[in-house]
Amino acid sequence: MAQSFQQSFLPVLERIGEEIEALAGRGRPADYIPALAAVDPNRFGMAVAELDGTVYGVGEWQQPFSTQSVTKVFTLALALSREGEELWEHVGREPSGNPFNSLVQLEYEHGIPRNPFINAGALVVTDRLHRLTGDASGSLRDFLRAESANPDLDFDRDVAASETAHGDRNAALAHFMASYGNITTPVPTLLREYFRQCAIEASCADLAVATGFLARHGIRADGSRLLTRSQAKQVNAVMMTCGTYDAAGDFAYRVGLPGKSGVGGAIIAVVPGRCTLCVWSPGLDDRGNSVAGVAALDRFTTITGLSVF
Fold first, then answer.
1. Which of 127, 162, 178, 203 is 20 to 30 A from 190 (CA-CA)?
2. pLDDT tens digits, residue range 30-41?
3. What's the predicted TM-score (pTM) here?
């Protein structure tokens, strides 16, 4: 029976960890990025952070992993905080319905990506942040270090090099959008910043705590405001509708929270006004989302009754 939890989340996480241990058929790691292909798909960690930064975890919740597309949430927040509504002139807010690295939609829509979380949209947001800061990936790393209180959080250079060596599709997306004037950073520079962004290593604990500003309606860990309340709502809304590739409807149905997944096997999720979560398990389904991660978040909202619905 669902209930509203006010005590420690640890018993809930321990229960979920036991259930995930028995879960069969956990999918396969991303095999198109060689640095990720060899990771054991049965690894699992999960963390929940309260608004004050108190964090609970189970499994390998303190083990760093490749964050991949999860970082797109933070890049979006940083760009939106600096540029405001003008950002949305360059990237949309609608689900794509196509694979995250699709070229087809861009031609129909004249170089404006459907949303910030497909690869084309993330490239545009990285371009905007780079124009504003001169160092998009460095700004992102510094932000994550500050919000997670982990000064050692950094890029995995091997993963960045692996993505660069197999990044032809992303290069094609960037050049195509540049031809429409929707990318202004030189494409080689943009790709370097984008691949470094995706190659940040962090743990479930790091990401659960770092995501807290979205549960606090835009307020950072130090009490300063990053986003207006309306902007925080916007980011959470786009996470809900677009954050899990072309499985966002199923994720909303099962989990009922704004979330963002990455092909490294992580998913972050937000309970506005209450807590934030991160789960990691590298085995993916055929749409690029962690099989055990979605199952664990489904159980969390079912057990606790904490969802936006």
1. 203
2. 887 887 888 999
3. 0.95
